[in-house]
Amino acid sequence: xxxxxxxxxxxxxxxxxxxxxxxxxxxxxxxxxxxxxxxxxxxxxxxxxxxxxxxxxxxxxxxxxxxxxxxxxxxxxxxxxxxxxxxxxxxxxxxxxxxxxxxxxxxxxxxxxxxxxxxxxxxxxxxxxxxxxxxxxxxxxxxxxxxxxxxxxxxxxxxxxxxxxxxxxxxxxxxxxxxxxxxxxxxxxxxxxxxxxxxxxxxxxxxxxxxxxxxxxxxxxxxxxxxxxxxxxxxxxxxxxxxxxxxxxxxxxxxxxxxxxxxxxxxxxxxxxxxxxxxxxxxxxxxxxxxxxxxxxxxxxxxxxxxxxxxxxxxxxxxxxxxxxxxxxxxxxxxxxxxxxxxxxxxxxxxxxxxxxxxxxxxxxxxxxxxxxxxxxxxxxxxxxxxxxxxxxxxxxxxxxxxxxxxxxxxxxxxxxxxxxxxxxxxxxxxxxxxxxxxxxxxxxxxxxxxxxxxxxxxxxxxxxxxxxxxxxxxxxxxxxxxxxxxxxxxxxxxxxxxxxxxxxxxxxxxxxxxxxxxxxxxxxxxxxxxxxxxxxxxxxxxxxxxxxxxxxxxxxxxxxxxxxxxxxxxxxxxxxxxxxxxxxxxxxxxxxxxxxxxxxxxxxxxxxxxxxxxxxxxxxxxxxxxxxxxxxxxxxxxxxxxxxxxxxxxxxxxxxxxxxxxxxxxxxxxxxxxxxxxxxxxxxxxxxxxxxxxxxxxxxxxxxxxxxxxxxxxxxxxxxxxxxxxxxxxxxxxxxxxxxxxxxxxxxxxxxxxxxxxxxxxxxxxxxxxxxxxxxxxxxxxxxxxxxxxxxxxxxxxxxxxxxxxxxxxxxxxxxxxxxxxxxxxxxxxxxxxxxxxxxxxxxxxxxxxxxxxxxxxxxxxxxxxxxxxxxxxxxxxxxxxxxxxxxxxxxxxxxxxxxxxxxxxxxxxxxxxxxxxxxxxxxxxxxxxxxxxxxxxxxxxxxxxxxxxxxxxxxxxxxxxxxxxxxxxxxxxxxxxxxx
Length: 982
Description:
By secondary structure, the chain is α/β, with parallel strands linked by helices. Helices cover 37% and strands 24% of the residues.
């Protein structure tokens, strides 16, 4: 068939893909594969799921379960009853075929590479094995957008990290509705990530799954997109909707990433046209939020790329401490930290090194991300138990505490990390940083944005600071500002060259809207009045507002106007935003007093002609402190204006001279009173806390010991419980099958009315059917008694001997007998064989054949009667079988044909001894022989005259009749020929 082009509509742009038919697009190398994870309670969910999957769905399915290592799984047989899809137990190197199901074997973990399955032995780290996470992660790496993760019933959190990986790769995630799951641990943990596309009961999953894989996005996912976002109105509108709701501009993200994520969301909603998807975005704030999250999905884990972090441990960490003295700060920045795994990884490495050198430093790790939800998750420091696959047992024991199905970062590590929301593109960078670790974030940016971000990193780093990037990232044009430490893992050291950040090149102030270059003529439609006011306010602030700052009621610096920073400097040591620690000491007393009075008097305080030293010169200024309330929070705020004396004549504010003596004395008096009151309260509190603390300490130690024991026991029980539940589910199915089979057998025995006795190897009665009572005098209490103790209703003295003989020789025995009431039955004695062909006893059956024997007798009598009639008939009677051979001839036939019965039997109609002629004496053609005529025409012959020649040339005229005889299928099985001499 000739090829044709197919287009996927993207508004005013189209993406061309290779032509394929809609129904048979996927071939053996590009079909999607679904990883299906299930644990306790998962058997029923799997049965419902596959029962509603079409056999020709075009997908491959890999089922991963928590299986008992000591139990042979029956999943192949059990699932096979609910689907006609071929089911295989996975083998090492087995290639996944579409329209097939593959099951993980016991005691193995499963991964996939180039669509082939690979088995490894389970490694029970801390007693946990998480096969679902292991497989789903490898599936995400292998199939990317064609990977599908499905999580069904189960306890714990296995599968959570796996679905994160699948979403990060652009795949689809489907989870069982908690309300339909027998055990909701795994579904709950997966749903809590906020990454799930569909939450459904298992029986509805198949329909959504097939709709999803039929979407054009998935069929074209291996094609490179050729589209310019800036020239595409629809995508621009979608990005504008995201920015309007979240404040985040994705314009300078790579187009392929953006379009793929948008198409993926449209495929989840089964929307083939991107214009229709934009209408959904316009009408649904929820969808905007989901798409925003989709664009932000970060793929991360503890010690990701273990070889890279081993290099950091050996070469980078020691460098950070070389130029530091004990107690000095080491500052690390982890931008784009996502859910915090990388930040905590670095914290662990830094803690380990300090333990090694036995010296303490002030470690500050600034972990930032634009995603507020991710930051909140990271700051909790709580992760699913599936992280055991990423972290060594030693690190887990030292730096995490187990709490149910989660691990929590210990306080000593948590306190080293400061999490904050931060827009790497818009917000100013951190400063005096010793290590910047930003891995696999730049790959999502266009080159111009990559350069801007890298320049920010260069500015942040102190001289000799380390930059750690992802393995597929590089510093590009900025290579002259860095020296290479390791080229493979992209670790660089900043040199002496000063790199300034590229500011205000890619964006306007927060309230403005960045337009695409291709739409310059539309700007007037997008600007609002508030944008104009913001621009005017900015100019007014720059030109007319004196050096000023805003602080909160805790004296912490909030905002700096104009060049007020010339009156402040950052103190050395631990960072503090307290304004009194940042201004010169001479100014600190006056400023502190003014702030205190402003709060106390709820008004404005102005001090005049305050002198202090700046750059070895005396400077005089007026200090203005004005209290006001924040419009939204209603918190107290202070505006502090520094008005140098040279501008004093321009001030319209009434001021007073700052008398340091009187003001200080009053201030000291107030502070002493507050201090005395505070000390008294503090002492009382300390004494109470000391008493309580001793009691709590003792209780806590007991609880810790008990908790550790219970936790260890609970983990073991949980693991055993999952295995037992899986085994129990399979056994339950088998029990149901056996019950059904037993009912069938009982009903069959009752319907057939066959008496049956089951004996064990000692010939004791195990079971018997109701019909047995007609032949043997049995009651229910006879079970367990020897058969020799039981009387029976027939005469056969060898009955017990025959039973023993069959048990010894294993040769079945049967005999026809009469009961005491003169009824015939068939007695059969057989060895009882198991499936394994082992002999476990004897089976005795009593089959009522009385009617059969009556029929036999009647038939025998009828046959004798008919035989006498035939033998004494005046007509000759000859029966030919279907092959023409004589099977019967009566006395008259023997007489006429002049042959004995033995000579006649077996001879054919055309035997040379039979010379058959027409009425005129000419020899008869073979096809006209009576037998042939009847067989050929299925007809009868009535009173036909023919002649036969015998020895001595004797000729006899015969009047012949012939008719066919039919079997039960109405086929001719014989021909009866009757004749007399004429």
